[in-house]
Amino acid sequence: MVRTYLLAIILAMSANLLIAQTGTVCKPENLSCEHLTSPLGVDTPTPRLSWMIDDSRLGAAQTAYQLIVGTDSMAVVNGQGNTWDSKKKNSDAILVTYAGKELNPFTRYYWKVNVWDKDGQLAQSDVTAFETGMMGMKNWQGAWIGDQRGIDYKPAPYFRKTFDTKKTVKSARAYIAVAGLYELYINGEKIGNHRLDPMYTRFDRRTLYVTYDVTKQLQQGKNAIGVLLGNGWYNHQSIGVWDFDKAPWRNRPTFCMDLRITYTDGSVEVIPTERDWKTSSGAVVFNSIYTAEHYDARLEQKGWNTPSFDDSQWRGVGYRGAPSQNIFSQQMQPIRNVETIPAKTIKQLNDSTYIFDLQRNIAGVTKIKVSGEEGTVVRIKHGERLYENGHIDMSNIDVYHRPKDDKDPFQTDILTLSGNGEDEFMAKFNYKGFRYVEVTSSKPVKLDINSITGYFMHSDVAPVGEIKTSNQLVNKLWWATNNAYLSNLMGFPTDCPQREKNGWTGDGHFAIETALYNFDGITIYEKWLADHRDEQQPNGVLPDIIPTGGWGYGTENGLDWTSTIAIIPWEVYMFYGDSKLLADCYENIKRYVNYVDRTSPDGLTSWGRGDWVPVKSRSSKELTSSIYYYVDATILAKAAKLFGKQDDYVHYTALAEKIKNAVNAKYLNRETGIYASGTQTELSVPLQWGVVPEELKIKVAQNLAKKVEEAGFHLDVGVLGAKAILNALSENGQAETAYKVAAQDTYPSWGWWIANGATTLLENWDLKAERDISDNHMMFGEIGGWFFKGLGGIKPDPEQPGFKHIILRPNFVEGLTQSETKHRSPYGMIVSQWERKKKNITYNIEIPANSSATLYLPEDIKGEQVIKLEAGKHSLKLSRK
Q1: pLDDT at residue number 24
Q2: Handedness of CA 96, 101, 107, 108 (dihedral sign)
Q3: Residue 97 and which of 117, 694, 705, 864 are 20 to 30 A apart at CA?
């Protein structure tokens, strides 16, 4: 095989020219604290600091680092840190836990990193900052207050408070903790662009607060704070089968807030929530996170959040008990209106009914602009499907709603017009899953294509992955998978954005690799696994929706679903090289595995839901549940080794081996290489999770490939098989078969959905199924991660996680002439790009600075099969045998 580095040499010459012009070859960049950029309100006493190296030279590496942290920004610029100076550490680490002086609350810390490159040359980062928050309950001065109404009172409470600033403001921070949802205003201006804050938690065990820099919003003299509260998941007034309305924490929304002002003379003043605040109802007459929002524009109190507003008719507030004794900073990517999606078509069905089509299924809200007579009632219904007569069909998504009457219609905002010109409305405390919008009015109104605008709402996680191939179906499928994933990321991963909005554990871990290959989502998963820890029973059992108001501790909340407690922390460790989440969950994983060990002493268990929504074949639940038990025990053993817990390592390694042996003894026919009855799921799940004996992997994979070929390269799996089948094939010599399945466009397949116009993933392979028929679901979402593994071959190395060392196993499949896979790892961008012309392949690779890779070529490629690659760009000319 000829190895060509011509491209690398040209690039190196270009880099040297740049160096000569700029005098720099290496630069630390992307500095983060707790995986966020310049965060406010950091509560952890030992935050994680991380960075990336920008250095395009071949073999670029960091040989040492020095962290400098201090409260004086100019001193830090000059290399002096009064809080921490790590001194020069001969290390290539790019993720370091703070180990300086004790951090104080309400303090801004500046920091930078010095690195030494492969030649021992010093390079300095720019200075960035993080700011601590409350750092404990003791530092709050505000009281929890409410409007003294009952839990069934429908109108949302508005609160206001005026105060004077008589000195010059240097800085101001608002710290607001809410049980429910909120919008915060200062002097009439909405603070921040977050939606649905704070994130949903088990409110009676952990409540989140958010920090804002409000320096610019304050003015000399009189100021006004306004707070509007929504119900969210805290006071669920709508009724569904999930018992949201029976949550043990349920109560009228309440909040606690400290506005902390630092003046230029160094003095500090805190404006807290107290009984001197005032409250009233207003235009938000009903709000439900599950169904919709009702807004009566006639009841708007113009300027209610400004200093000049007359609040003489407003009522007094009352004290409330804190919802929990654990009020902690919300350190995660917020939900935002990330993308604006105008309506693409409008159809008028009659003088009071219009249908708008976004031509794309999303999660989010709509904004309507409409004029009409005072008191005209406008209903804005959101759905995924249409009846033949053109009206919205809600039957696939409203099946679990149990309304008492017709006053709370599903996914239908209700706007009552003011009669004062154009009214504008967008739900504040709700989101929906939809493509179509049906607007009906009690009296005729005139609408046009610009009257409705859609907003795609989700946790605003940065994209870090990209797939481009010569097959447009593959490209569209990757895009649709990401649309479904984002539609179901609302501070925690959900199953669907309409019918349930539940944090189904299985859906969460089935899609975890898709999530992490495509998006920088670590903060979301750290939050969700904290929810797991909050929900876990003392015996180790977890519910299968998290958070939950009590539903989910049934008989099937077992290993194939609730293995999130082990799988997600492990995958986060693999993708980020950050073991904190795994350490935080270690004892919880242990309790979980120990519970199963007590209840299933022979190593086999049928505790679980099984291969949910299969095409037709049914697979052994004991087989699949026992394999997930093995997965959890294996992860626990590896974590024990990582954390130096030798006794645990020995014990759980032996337990994992016991489970594997029990599975193979009962279900594996060693002569035929068939597990159980030989369904696609029963063959692929043991292969995916490493249960198959090494000497039988090829035979089992061949049997799976034959099974798939007999089905015309179609799927016959449910969620467990969908997670496993492509990996099981491509990682065991059957990449061509895996690709044929992934690129299939007839029923049943992922591509069948795309061929029928889907812009997200569906809940059922059968487009005409009568149940489990959400059109925006994530439980079959593994395919979005498989593209990175099965085509580009980009994989983390468990021995050097976080892509410190990259495993490259590309597959140059016959069905493609071109494939480009990109993933921005903690070290930088990884690129695996190939183009095939008959037997000749050009393979271009990019390895980020401070990283390395081992390339494993397919057996049908001539020449050397295993190639070590250093950081930089490489171009290889390959040919098939």
Answers
A1: 64
A2: negative
A3: 117
